[in-house]
Amino acid sequence: MRCSAPSKLMLLLAAAGSFLLSMTATAHAQKPPVDPGPDSAVTCIPHERDALLAFKQGITGDPAGILALWQQQQPDGGHGDDGEHTQDCCRWRGVRCSDRTGHVIELRLGNANNDIVVDRDATALVGQISRSLLALEHLQHLDLSYNNFSGGPTGRIPEFLGSLKNLKHLNLSGIGFHGSVPPHLGNLTQLQYLDLFSSSSMGAAYSTDVSWLAHLRFLRYLNLGSVNLSTVTDWPHVVAMLPSLTVLRLPGCSLSGMLPEPVAQLTSLVALDLSRNSFTGPLPEFIGNLTGLKMLDLSSNKFTGPLPASVRYITGLRTLDVSYNNLTGLPREVGTLSSLTGLYVSHNSLEGDITEEYSRSLKSLQHIDLSSNFLKIEISTKWKPPFAKLRSANFANCKMGPMFPAWLKWLVGIEYLDISSAGITDRIPDWFPTAFSNASFLSMSKNQLSGELPANMDIMSSLDELDLSNNSLSGQIPKLPNNLTYLDICINSLSGSLPEDLGLPNLQVLSVASNSITGSVPRSICRSQGLRTLVLANNHLDGELPNCFGNNVMLFLDLSNNIFSGMLPASMQNCEMLQVLDLSRNMFSGRFPVWVGKLKRLRFLRLRQNMFSGKVPTNLTNLGCLQYLDIADNRISGSLPRNLSNLKSLKQKQSAEMCSDVFHVRVFAVNFSTFLKGQQLSYGSIPRIVGLNMKVIDLSFNNITGEIPEEIATLDGLLNLNLSKNHFSGNVPSKIGAMQSLESLDLSGNKLSGEIPISLSTLTFLSYLDLSYNNLTGAIPSGSQLDTLYAEHPNMYTGNIGLCGPPLKNNCLKTDASEQGPFTRTEEGRWQGFFYIGLGYGFLAGIWLVSCALLFMKNWRIAYFCLFDKLYDKAYVLVVTWWAKADQEDMQLS
């Protein structure tokens, strides 16, 4: 299911906007600066102009030029380039003066771009809030919201703001102050609007005492969002002492426990937001006492039990949000709220049947979200819903099937509809494209929709995103709506070729993976210059890619498991932003593409099971973001590049700056498997592999020669290293024990020689090891880790005739295999051993002869017997043992 939280938030704000604007002229939205006009008679008071200029001096960054016209008066009395508009502070941007006295009464410098961080930084003021503002004694309105002010050395809200006694409106939201909220703000007794919403990344602002709020008797709007109030227990009593309060927003304030009863005394409230806290227990019936509420947001808490039926007494309620809790019941009384425009109850544990009775009076409803519950929508096919103005509906994970809900055809004004995972096993009705011709978002994924797609889908001219993935749709892909930006129809049974006019001008995401699509990729795909994600995996597509294929914004390209052939088009080197490239299991040929080394943001590269040839290009080691490299089962030859240490993302401490971008790919349904620990394992999707930070190098089944570079041991973040079935020679890197993250190591089927490095026994995470069929010699390193691996994989040393010692049965006579003397096989064969045996035992016979002669010189028969008996026994045992070992080696070689 696609996440609907951003859409829900936008819809919630839209629904709440109308009554907030009518409630107060100083609503939370930003207002444009007031310009008194060229005919205004008021002029700037000099000392207040100086105060504003001093404030400007504290501004170190002004990317949008907000304060560009704030200039000092020219020494000669001139007016600068813009005449008197430059010297008259009453005409400066963001400044408003009293028409009667000329004093500055408003300073509106809030950043209007307060939703997206990138846009916000492009227009935000940077610097400190100067104490010079104290000279503006008549200031009534101060808005510095969503700028990048540090608040001075302490990073806290400046205490001197509490001295601006005439302030009625103070908005410091989104600035990111941290530390304690100064109680000095309680001196602003004329205050009507206070917004201290915190967005600090350095540690949220906090307060241990809010008793100062009781002095703000005229306060109508209070927002302490994300200010930590976890130690404040009397906040309900304090806010209950504010007789004029109409809006209370305390989201994300670390409040806990059951909803306190003094909240029921806030009968003057029209908006209450206690979302993103840790409130527990059932929602109390006294919620119904807040009869003046128009907006109630209790989302993202831990409330249990049913939504209280007393909610019916809040007759003017327009927005009700109790999503992301543990609620179990939804009362029918919700259907009596005739003023309700937004109902959000998603991500709870709601059970039961939703019938027509639940919506009998919801004539004003525009947005509804029942998703991620255990609800069953039991509505007659002949029912006509009363909410004709419905704009968004999310019924994901609600049981609506098995038939396609016929009552949906009356929602002709719908813009957003999600009926994914709804248990529908029907065909898509013919009326579908006409009924939803105004929709911009449609998701019907994870059902069992069958049959063909409607032929007239192109009439859905407003459609922006369409998700039909994980169904049983068949037939060909029809002509698609021209304005589509997102299309996911993967994991179906679609057949035929791709539409010739596939190149939709606005298309950004296209996935038709895991179908039975045939033919080639149409050249029209090149017209989709905004295409960022293309997934054609697991089909029967063939032929060569168009020579215009690729663009400079593409992030994700998966063409795996098809029958594509030929060389890769040179135009693909234009995909400079590419992060994922999967061309595996095709028939691509030609030399390994050198231009891959220019894709500096590439994180995932899989070319396995193709016919690529040539060397691994040296510039591949320039890919500092690369964390998954799989070029197995090709015809790659030559030696590996030496500067593997440049692959920074394969290290535990990665420092590649460009790799810090958030990896975000919306297509995630295609199953992904990788070879790890000697078997093929499934990991769900490529984005999940990247998100799990799985670091892999697989070069197996190629013709790579030369030594394994020692630099490979610097890649201490690798989890899987597979160099098997190549022609590597030389020694196993001596410092391989430095690769402390290794879980799987496969060097089998090469020509490696020398001893197994002792450091290999220190790899504590290693759970799979295969060194079989090489020319390794000497004693096997000891250690419990290797002993455990051998018990699980007893063939991991097979085919190395020079290895000895436990856990193998052939013991080493000496620690150093190079010093095993006359029992080492040579090119002259086993008979050379007899020469050394004869030589040694000739010397031994001489010693025994002299000894026995000295002891038994009087009896030569005894001397002869002693010599022959001892020499025969020793020689016989030694020769027989050596001969048996030689026969065993011959058998292994054969």
Describe this structure in words.
By secondary structure, this protein is of the alpha/beta class. Helix 6 (432-435) links the parallel strand 25 (416-418) and strand 26 (441-443). The two termini are 59 Å apart. InterPro entries: Leu-rich_rpt (IPR001611), Leu-rich_rpt_typical-subtyp (IPR003591), LRR_dom_sf (IPR032675), LRR_N_plant-typ (IPR013210), LRR_R13L4/SHOC2-like (IPR055414), RLP23-like (IPR046956). Belongs to the RLP family. Keywords: Brassinosteroid signaling pathway, Cell membrane, Glycoprotein, Leucine-rich repeat, Membrane, Repeat, Signal, Transmembrane, Transmembrane helix. It is a single-pass type I membrane protein.
List keywords for this structure.
Leucine-rich repeat, LRR (right-handed beta-alpha superhelix); 27-stranded mixed β-sheet; 14-stranded parallel β-sheet; 10 helices; disordered C terminus; glycoprotein
Quick take:
By secondary structure, the chain is of the alpha/beta class.
